[in-house]
Amino acid sequence: MIQLSQITKRFPGIIANDAVDLTVRPGEIHALLGENGAGKSTLMQILYGFHAMDSGQILLDGQRVSITSPADAIALGIGMVHQDFMLVPTFTVAENTILGLREGTGAMLNLKRAASRIRELSEQHHLAVDPNAITGTLPVGVQQRVEILKLLYRDARVLILDEPTAVLTAPEKYRLFTVLRGLRAQGRSILIVTHKLHEIMELADRVTVMRDGRNVASVAVEDTSGPELARLMVGRDVNLSVSKLEVPPGPSILSVKRLSVRDHAGQRKLKDISLELHPHEILGIAGVDGNGQSELAQALLGLRTIEGGSILLNGRDITEARVAERRALGLAYVPADRRNVGSVADLSIADNAMLTQPRSNTRHSLFNKTLIRARAQTIITRFGVRGANDETHASKLSGGNLQKVILGREIMSAPKVLVVEQPTRGLDVGAIESIWAELLRERAKGTAILLVSAELEELLNLADRIAVMYEGRIVGVVDPASATAEQLGMMMAGTPLEPTGVSS
Amino acid sequence: MSVFSQAFLVTWLTAGIRLGGPVLLAALGETFAERSGILNLGIEGILLLGALASYLTSIHTGSLWLPLFAAMLTGFAAALFLAWMYVTVRASQVVVGLVFNVLALGIAATVYRRTLAHASPGPIAMFQAVHIPWVSDLPIVGPTLFSQTLPLYLTLVLVVVAHFALFHTRFGLGLRAAGENPRAADAAGISVPRMRYLGTLISGAAAGLAGGYLVLAQIGLFRDSIVAGQGFIALGIVIFGRWSPWKAALAAMVFGTCDALQLSLQLLGTHLPEELLLSIPYVVTILAISGIFGGRDVRPAALAVPYAKEA
Ligand SMILES: Nc1ncnc2c1ncn2[C@@H]1O[C@H](COP(=O)(O)OP(=O)(O)OP(=O)(O)O)[C@@H](O)[C@H]1O
Ligand SMILES: [Mg+2]
Question: The ABC transporter domain covers which part of the protein (chain A) (predicted)?
């Protein structure tokens, strides 16, 4: 049994954990829920020895333990799968698995033995991986399996998973849940951070809700409900059912014809993509990660060399135009990678907020600080960025708050076409509600929106049409009013919409 | 003698392998530093200090091995200071390394002027080419490969040792993890500072040793100009050798043969200006470092990036 007692952690200007208590029993899956920035990752990283707590104590089976480094945590049988994976991309799976391990006596690596042990474990727990594969070349879902195998290899008794489902497809998620249930049956303790209420209801035994660094409730899952958890977490009722205004879409504003793109390795990533986007319309792009959705978004923005086809914005050919020209013509973009593409970590919110239109913030060709700060302030208040002011560095923002800043910046540029990738990945329900509302408001104003999302629920709720991508092609376009999640899932796996019988 | 005669070829290759030795030794050590994430530019200065230490020890003891040991110890001590700056202070590795080289040059010049310039000590004991009966007399390979000095053979043994340590031991795995993804290494329970200290210390000891090698097996005297950028060339060799000991050995031989070629060409008396010939090995190094022959993809991802554990 692991007990966290009165854990307090301060960062400059903020109390990330404020006297938090948390108990996880053996054979229990304990979910940790809370808004973005509530302090969940901080608490988990204290338990794993990444952060030092300011006060409080950790008890393992009633014994007080001191955890000052991950090495301490590992020695105590605590393992963690981090929100951003902790793998060395150039190492093989086996090398990553035994990294840091003191097994056997000698100083020599025995990669063969490690590989056979990994094979055993992966069979036992249904976590298929090739021990000799180079980790960086594996899809994220498989990399996560490697992370879990690492913990099993060390025979961890306490497993911490920080938002493990954020990067998974639906089938991968169910596979993960099966694995976790198996581990629970072996008497291990599992702590899982997630924003998805239905996952908690489905998987967890107990749930602890955090708000503003405090533990506001620890309850058994059967004694609560999704809406109640949402209320506990946000402090108000959350309404995720959206009501869309029926607006007739205007004539096409963005027209893509037979677009083809290769990646730097020469692989075709987009094959003959054609689509039309209209004002007052949200066109959803569904697909399993890596089937060309990101490449499509990047090609529209001018971040990819285009091999064939054309892009017309408002009738103008922008196939060869530079990014700045496209933006000036009314394109805006919210990339999937908020930390490395959407923002600059060491710049303040104010500086990040003007990055995409530096010209509009100048007076006599010098930056106008007052204007820049006011703009940042507007974003912070209008989009509800929490626990930050205009001077806060992007690196110090939680994922949800950073996303609000980026979306805010793009919307403030009054775009004609807004390309958004994974707008709510990793966000809490409160934040999702407000981001969805903003996107619908843009749609009502007449913006044409291309929404790339791995969340079927998001697409079904927001989109007017959903195009499904598979291996770089659009395999079908469906109407969300009549489509089901199952149907979309089939198409995402490469099955065409209507079976066409015998094809030539 | 013509450029194409066998005699020329043998002389050239023999000299090439001979000249490549010290830079290879320094490059092997630097490979450890860089694999751990530390760009130790200070090896140029350490080579010089190692050379000085070995020369001073040699004229006072007359021994062969003791000066080599002194050189290594000096390199180790200097690296301890550098590692403290790189890892504990987390200063800019490029700035510290470059300034250290200037400092080392100052120290060497001062010590040399104060103690040696006027004394003019006689010749020192040097490592001689070994002669293995029969093997050394084989055509071509005999003189080129089997008539070199002991430090060269020691260096070649270290190539094997380095490869083994980096790729077949737990230590090597941890060291490489620290240079590729220090946060992941940390999360796996590895002390990144410890790995980076060790990497820097290994590079220091090897560079010090290489300085001694230069004096005791190749030059036989000390001037504050004897290193002449060989530390930087070793840095180039690490890149050219894709951070692998085997390939570094090949790269060092390429450098050595370029250097030998310019010497031989000078002796042959070509019409090319001497300065142009002198620059050949350096030009080759710059081309190698530029990455136009590839290699950028295998650079340790966290090279020269200081790592700070979170509070
Ligand atoms: N290294 C740091 N330095 C300063 N502040 C930090 C640091 N790490 C986190 N914070 C702040 O501490 C608070 C808690 O952050 P934490 O990452 O624990 O939130 P979270 O609950 O995991 O959020 P999310 O759901 O977005 O992952 C946030 O306000 C965040 O900005
Ligand atoms: Mg978090």
Answer: 2-237, 254-496
For residue A65, the CA-to-ligand 2 centroid distance in Å is: 24
- Decide if B311 and A11 are in contact by the 8 Å CB cutoff: yes
- Quote the Cα angle for A440-A324-A381, to 5°: 40
Q: Among all chains, which residue has been given the structure tokens 């070649």? A: B156
Domain boundaries, chain B: 3-121+147-289
Ligand 1: which of A4, A18, A42, A395 to mutate, judged by most atoms within 8 Å of the beta carbon? A42
Question: How many other CB atoms sit within 10 Å of the CB of residue B219?
Answer: 16
Q: What share of chain B is helix, strand, coil (3-state, %, to 5)?
A: 70, 0, 30
Beta strands A417-421 and A331-334: pairing type? parallel
CATH T-level topology, domain A250-330+415-425+446-497 = Rossmann fold (3.40.50)
As a whole number of Å, the CA-based R_g of chain A is 24
DSSP string, B223-261: -TTSSTTHHHHHHHHHHHTTT-HHHHHHHHHHHHHHHHH
Query: What's this model's pTM, rounded to 2 decimal places?
Result: 0.86
CB contact under 8 A, A100 and B168: no
Prediction ipTM score:
0.90
- Which of A90, A110, A113, A135 is the best substitution to test chain B (most B C-beta atoms within 10 A)? A90
pLDDT, tens digit (0-9, with 9 covering 90-100), for A355-409 = 887 777 777 777 888 888 988 999 999 888 887 888 889 988 887 889 999 999 9
At the fourth CATH level, the homologous superfamily of domain A2-234 is: P-loop containing nucleotide triphosphate hydrolases (3.40.50.300)
Q: How far off is chain A from B69, nearest CA to CA, in Å? A: 26
Class of domain B3-121+147-289: mainly alpha
DSSP state of B291: T
CB atoms A88 and B177 under 8 Å: yes
